[in-house]
Design brief:
75% of the residues lie in helices and 0% in strands. With 264 residues, the protein is an all-alpha fold. Helix 8 crosses helix 9, helix 9 (155-177) crosses helix 12 (208-233) and helix 10 packs across helix 12 (208-233). Mean pLDDT is 78; it is low at 1-6 and 135-153.
């Protein structure tokens, strides 16, 4: 009981500090506490803003557009600086992160800075758009090299990737190889060939919901296998290992498309 009370007091203290950082934005304490319960208080102000964004608070949305979406423009421009491409990435990113019941901002738990989280999502979105465009253009240029991708990501994550990139790639390849042939083909269809769930369902002659469940199970199996291998191979703190695994999870579409594409 005393331990529970202490935890509640700590969350309340973090909440008060975060609210002071965003005085024009109102977030219910319960919403903040629920998000903290499954995450971290390391970036409480960012987590507070994420709660407001999840509730589509107008002031929070304006702050996001100005401070975070605008800041991601530089990373996107290093991939393709054309105005139309940057605008397309920003629009796609905003919809993916903020719109609808499955908005990705709901997954943010404050373990890392929100700016880095958005930057990583922007890079991933830009590379995916470029990859899809290359499929439509004969003799398109090759995929982005891994070192250039790392340079665009959050500095902490980029450092972990540089230091443990070899082990990470090996674990990813082994995890994919451990899947059954049907699951590997499913990942190939979705992450490399760019087929929609509906199109895969038509090819497989099953329902779209079945394809979704199989795809979700296959990607979760890959992540679980990676974590099992890295726990045994890398001498990392729990926080660093979680950051590395979280990066793979956040960028599973990019990671799988690179590995599966090179194998193809």
């Amino acid at each position: 009981m005393p331990e529970r009370a202490t935890t509640t007091l700590e969350i309340r203290r973090s909440f008060d500090e975060a609210r002071a950082a965003w005085p024009a934005i109102e977030v219910p304490f319960e919403a903040f506490a629920d998000r903290v319960a499954s995450g971290s208080r390391g970036h409480a102000a960012d987590l507070y803003l994420a709660c407001a964004l999840s509730a589509a608070d107008p002031t929070a949305l304006a702050e996001f557009d100005q401070r975070f979406l605008g800041a991601a423009r530089d990373a996107v421009a290093r991939i393709d600086g054309s105005h139309d491409f940057v605008a397309e990435v920003q629009q796609t990113l905003r919809e993916r992160l903020l719109v609808g019941p499955r908005a990705k901002i709901r997954d943010y738990r404050g373990a890392g800075a929100l700016a880095g989280w958005v930057r990583t999502a922007a890079v991933r979105t830009a590379l995916n758009l470029r990859r899809n465009a290359r499929r439509e253009i004969p003799h398109a240029e090759p995929a982005e090299p891994a070192d250039r991708i790392d340079a665009l990501l959050d500095p902490e994550i980029a450092m972990l990737r540089r230091r443990h990139g070899g082990e990470l790639d090996t674990a990813l390849r082994r995890a994919i190889a451990a899947l059954g042939p049907r699951d590997r083909l499913l990942l190939q269809f979705y992450y490399v060939d760019g087929l929609t769930l509906a199109r895969i369902a038509a090819v497989e002659r099953v329902g779209t919901s079945t394809v979704f469940r199989r795809l979700n199970a296959a990607t979760r199996a890959v992540l679980a296998a990676i974590k099992r291998e890295l726990v045994g191979r890398l001498q990392l703190s729990a926080d660093s290992l979680d950051s590395l695994i979280r990066h793979v999870q956040d960028d599973i579409d990019l990671s799988l498309s690179q590995v599966l594409g090179s194998a193809t």
